[in-house]
Specification:
Two copies of one chain form a homodimer.
Chain A (H helix, E strand, L loop, with lengths): L2 E10 L7 E9 L2 E6 L9 E6 L3 E5 L1 E3 L18 H13 L4 H17 L2 E8 L2 H11 L2 E8 L5 H18 L7 E3 L2 E2 L7 H14 L3 E5 L3 H11 L3 H7 L7 E5 L5 H9 L3 E4 L1 H6 L7 H6 L4 E3 L12 H16 L7 H8 L1 H6 L16 E5 L11 H7 L6 E6 L2 E5 L2 E2 L4 H17 L1
Chain lengths: ~425, ~425
């Protein structure tokens, strides 16, 4: 792969030492080889020179929790409580998902994500071979896991676990290293304790991280206490979940002691503000988590509970709601919100050299069209990205130095075919 | 003006009796003359026939509180408390605004608003002749008022009030009726009581409504109590503000009794969720206001405290935050969020025949591009508009039957010239 040069660019690096650079960025293969105010040393033979005028370049966004195929259920059941929504609207429909439904649902979501500036995403779902193949195709980075629900007979539990292990083994490190895998008990309320222990054992055996939903609603916490005598954090700690590197989604209802436990084990929390608000789950204690040194990142959750996959919106929600709810206008300032969506996102899901623009980092970056009223004046581009931008401002996207989106058009996925197939899968499901 | 027909359209009417229509809409001059499943009676001589395939048509959005020229201060001072932000960042800069700054700042904001689907907006600011001329030019609907701050010597107060009255008189009903006016004491904390009384007298004399900021922060409420012995609602009631039709912006900190007073006088509340969260002012009691019959609408506030003018985002925030904060997932459902941005918005600012798509209503409507991943599947377009859409999905905009935006391009305003002039005004301001 030859070198690429972006010239006349404005780079919001998400690097604390040098946040905004006007100048040049050089990409050598899958890596950023130079970024700086001055032109790089002469003599390079560039395969492509990109004119960066009127563009803001920044790291690709990292979406640390989701269920991509659930785009098939976008708008199917709004304004309902989590348990009702799950049990009456989601689970009955999802039970009828075939692997082809998951394929096309996931492809549609990847199309939405990548065109909107997300370059890495976590996916916890079923029929994960389809998801992995979709990641191979799209060129995105995927941290994938077969989420298992244990509310079933032991032989079915066993089969699901075997399938999850097989998937994790088969795909870890594949797609030129863009795919990594995890093990995932769906949640403490959907997996009996002994089943969770078996999944933890498997994660040890495969040397992989764990991912689970945890403490999403007050009801979940209360039921966990009444069923097991422990709140979810102590329950999962007891079952050994935190003996592995671990990413929990939501973490809305946490007390001080629990935050201390998460910090002690370096458990990472995927904050899903849009989903938590929509399902009325509550507002996670993000400023407190950050103050205690817990790594926090952002997830959209599935499109059925969000209802879009716009990571700019999640960064903005994270910056806005914690101010409004705490009464502290300095809570989650723009620079932190950017980190949640980039550097801390990458760290939270164990991605190496991903999340910021600096020499030596992977060339995962995006461009935004600055030539628009809502990006004026040129007062503060960090502020504009967090408080004013949206997914639809993204014009170009690169992962591993490869361009995936050019002038708003996805180069790796066939948008028209995906939309058509998706529509036909949805019709079939609804005829059900 | 000849007739226009939109055929093969999908219409989200914001009319409670018939929310979604697939079919035809006919526009005769400035008015919707027909909307329905079947083609209108034959024989009409259409000046234009619009093919509505892949488009969702809905009423233009109504932004009931803002300060358009403040786009010049977008990104200048984030993550600060309201009083600090006002006193250290906004007022010193605003004091140096000339009428030309207001002209170009307002034009840039109108460009952002109209391209993003807002067709009517409230503006409270200074140099209002420039704002009114900008509304004449853009073709938008403007409810305009010279906001007066009374922290100045009596003769200056007097001059400001005379100017505000003159403006209100000169422009009410102008621009083919698209401009209406109000009188506006800026806030109880910036206007002494006797000055507010004089402004109320002027509103009676001119038979105009009143608009003011009220109960935006807990600090404001506490200071009002300590200075005047009354909370802001009782204070304004005593000064006669509610003896006129009245629109208050924010209304974040209200007790039950105060909500009762607002309901009794039919005072309208412009809810500004983005601004209130960003400035950490708090979360207004919108479900309680609605339950008591108070008319609530949505405002972006100025771009310096939001930081964009995307009314889709305000509708989504209104639908999301009240669920998350109350714990009730049925709070502010999508249908109500749509009303806040359309029908209730128009009613709140006394616009006649504006806010929904129905025969006899003004032809203020917009089109969204449905052929995008985040609008799939075709499960529930009301849900998609509230939970998934953004300003950038808007392709076409009409006000009074006149097309203002076509395929994303504003037909009435010169975008390149406005951006260039805006940049030069900003540079001049920052040079001081």
């Amino acid at each position: 792969m030859s070198k690429t040069l972006v010239k006349n660019g404005l780079f919001l690096t998400a690097d604390e030492t040098c946040p905004l650079i006007e100048g040049y960025m050089e990409i050598d293969g899958d890596t950023i080889s130079y970024i700086g105010k001055d032109a790089p040393a002469e003599g390079a033979d560039y395969g492509e020179i990109v004119d960066g005028r009127n563009r803001l370049y920044m790291p690709g966004l990292v979406n640390t929790h989701g269920h991509a195929a659930m785009s098939l259920l976008r708008g199917v059941g709004d304004d309902l409580a989590l348990q009702v929504w799950l049990q009456e609207k989601m689970w009955p429909n999802e039970a009828r998902f075939t692997s082809k439904d998951v394929k096309w649902g996931t492809l549609l979501s990847q199309l939405e994500m990548v065109k909107g500036g997300t370059t890495s995403f976590v996916d916890m779902y079923d029929h994960m071979n389809e998801v992995a193949q979709a990641v191979e195709l799209s060129g995105m980075r995927g941290v994938l896991t077969r989420g298992v629900i244990g509310l079933c007979p032991p032989e079915v539990q066993q089969a699901k676990l075997a399938e999850a292990k097989q998937f994790a083994r088969d795909w870890h490190g594949k797609a030129e290293g863009r795919i990594t895998t995890m093990m995932a008990p769906h949640a403490p309320y959907t997996c009996p304790p002994d089943y969770i222990e078996k999944i933890v054992d498997a994660a040890h055996e495969l040397d992989l991280p764990l991912h689970t939903h945890m403490s999403e609603t007050a009801r979940e916490v209360a039921e966990n206490e009444s069923e097991y005598g422990l709140r979810p954090v102590a329950h999962l700690e007891k079952l050994g979940v935190f003996s592995r590197p671990c990413l929990v989604a939501h973490g809305v209802h946490l007390n001080d002691e629990e935050i201390g436990v998460l910090a002690k084990y370096d458990v990472r929390v995927s904050h899903n503000p849009g989903s938590n608000l929509k399902l009325a789950s509550g507002v996670a204690r993000v400023p407190d988590l950050l103050a205690r040194g817990v790594k926090v990142s952002l997830g959209t959750d599935g499109a059925a509970s969000n209802n879009n996959l716009d990571m700019f919106e999640e960064m903005r929600l994270a910056a806005l709601i914690h101010k409004g709810v705490s009464g502290d206008p300095t809570a989650v300032p723009a620079a932190i919100a950017l980190q949640l969506g980039t550097t801390m996102g990458a760290e939270s899901i164990w991605l190496q050299k991903v999340g910021s623009l600096a020499a030596g980092m992977k060339a995962d970056f995006i461009a935004l069209d600055l030539d628009q009223p809502h990006f004026l004046p040129a007062s503060n581009y960090l502020s504009h990205v967090i408080y004013s931008a949206s997914a639809k401002d993204v014009t170009d996207v690169w992962v591993d130095g490869k361009q995936l989106v050019r002038k708003g058009k996805c180069l790796t996925l066939d948008e028209e075919k995906i939309k058509a197939e998706f529509k036909s899968r949805y019709s079939r499901l609804m005829e059900g």
